[in-house]
Design a protein that fits this description.
The structure is a single chain. The protein folds into 2 domains: 1-36, no CATH class; 38-243, Sandwich (Jelly Rolls). It has 2 helices and 18 strands. It has helices spanning 111-114, 134-143; strands at 4-10, 16-23, 34-36, 45-46, 52-54, 62-65, 68-71, 77-85, 87-96, 102-109, 125-131, 156-159, 163-166, 191-198, 201-206, 209-218, 222-228, 233-243.
Amino acid sequence: MNTLWSNIVRLGCGGWILLATGMLPAADETPVTKGFIDGSGPGFRTLGEQDFVNVNCDADTWKFQDGMIACTGTPVGVIRSAKSYTNLELVVEWRHLKSAGNSGVFLWGSEKSLTGLKPGQLPQGIEVQILDHGYTENYEKQTGKKADWFSTHGDVFPTGSAKMTPFPPTSPNGQRSFPTKQLSKGINQWNHYYVRAINGEVRLWVNGEEVSGGTGCSPATGFLCLESEGSPIEFKNLRLRELP
């Protein structure tokens, strides 16, 4: 009979990687390797209210309290980091508070697109999407069309004039990197994103597994933005490590 086993190794860059947990695999099975970066390694720091600037939201759209970042969702817009970044690692947990909620994290938002941005508009950059599963149901019910051009499990794509070569699988138009696995949880449940953005390449881990990303990003430097897009959402444990 197979026996239970587990093996956890400390990563040099911080965090932990879980090599395997559970029953020993059968001869024809390959154990799943998971990576979980919790943002506790050297160089990571927590981002709080002092690290963000309101761009085109109302004064009460975003609230920082007790380690949480709460967003009402209205109006559509963003807050941006106080400084610009090029290479970075980002850890963030998030949960939607309403079915069909929409939000996202923007990497490398260009200063030009953020300057003078009006309420209801979003910047140019690379978006790591945060979408609730109910969005698919609503879209198909309202349009009568199949929701085949987006997913709710961590799409990565360029916005506006930004460019990116997405990792496969991709959306029908070839613009979005679709996740290789469906790992996102539903409303009122916390999800964990780990994002690595280095030298114009973005990779996303959802709840411990790498699922999507892209390379050849332009711009490949700019501001980190959190998105308000019509629905209440909460973020916590937002931690960033700037890389050379």
